[in-house]
């Protein structure tokens, strides 16, 4: 797989804004996000279909796909940042013009449901993308979370090697297994990532570091999805695993018998004889490390470190 890094974002560049999944409950969040980008000196272009709604989708598949294609085709647009996740990105994949993306590689940002597009772009176009803050989730607030903001802008504006990453406030990484590993980073939201298993749009696991996070899934569902990955030989083929934040993933009913999340992870990852790092601050949280999918990553289960071994933009 030939890996393509997008060009770094420069002052006064044009940022495109699209909604490939669901619509925000409050459209003013998009307006506030636009003001934020412009306050930093960037120009913005909001997709013509942003703001539309079709059930739980931000417009029809054709409308959302039109915005995606138009932003990649527009040579002035240097970065594309998604409005939010939700649901619907995967529906676009069979209709995406991946040759267009190959011809016009650019910074593409989102997380959660956007995982589907990011893995498809990596598999079909070799494009490095960014699991990072979104317009109506992170950039609409009166005060953007400083940690999230600083790390994000640093890695999309500088081609320098990113190096070892750290959680906010020095919160440590933990290790389930020792050992060292290196590979290209793939993954994202566990449920969305698993939805691509068996398709032509998921990168293989060989020579990869697999990252996973999720929200609102009780332990038995996490168990089912990890079992699906095990049956697909993901843990057998990958070089190592990083676990992010699993937000609101406890069993809600105290009377329901359950395994803890830790017990579920132990069942699937304790015996794989490969390094497993957990508690990396990425997921459905406000203090968020941006993850560049497709770049080389090194993990050390003994020293409990994660290192982005290269820059993510050119």
Short précis:
This protein has helices spanning 28-39, 61-73, 89-92, 98-103, 115-125, 146-157, 190-194, 219-231, 234-237, 261-269; strands at 14-18, 43-46, 77-82, 107-110, 129-131, 163-164, 174-177, 180-189, 208-215, 240-247, 276-278, 291-293, 296-300, 305-308.
Which helices and strands, and how do they pair?
Blueprint: E1 14-18, H1 28-39, E2 43-46, H2 61-73, E3 77-82, H3 89-92, H4 98-103, E4 107-110, H5 115-125, E5 129-131, H6 146-157, E6 163-164, E7 174-177, E8 180-189, H7 190-194, E9 208-215, H8 219-231, H9 234-237, E10 240-247, H10 261-269, E11 276-278, E12 291-293, E13 296-300, E14 305-308
Parallel strand pairs: 1-2, 1-3, 3-4, 4-5, 8-9, 9-10, 10-11
Antiparallel strand pairs: 5-12, 6-14, 7-11, 8-13, 13-14
Helix pairs in contact: 8-10
Mean pLDDT: 97
Number of domains: 2
Class per helix and strand makeup? alpha/beta
Summarize the biggest pleated sheet: 8 strands, mixed
Could you list the spans in which at least 5 consecutive residues all have pLDDT below 50? Answer: none
Order of helices and strands: EHEHEHHEHEHEEEHEHHEHEEEE
Q: Quick one: CATH class of the largest domain? A: Alpha Beta
Tally of extended strands? 14
Q: Tell me the fraction of residues in β-strands, as a range.
A: 15-25%
The amount of helix comes to 25-40%
The CATH H-level homologous superfamily of the largest domain = LD-carboxypeptidase A C-terminal domain-like
Q: How are strands sequenced across the largest beta sheet?
A: 6-14-13-8-9-10-11-7
Quickly count the helices: 10
Shape: globular
Span between termini = 18 Å
Q: Roughly how many Å is the radius of gyration?
A: 19 Å
In the CATH classification, which architecture of the largest domain applies? 3-Layer(bba) Sandwich
- The CATH topology of the largest domain: Glucose Oxidase, domain 1
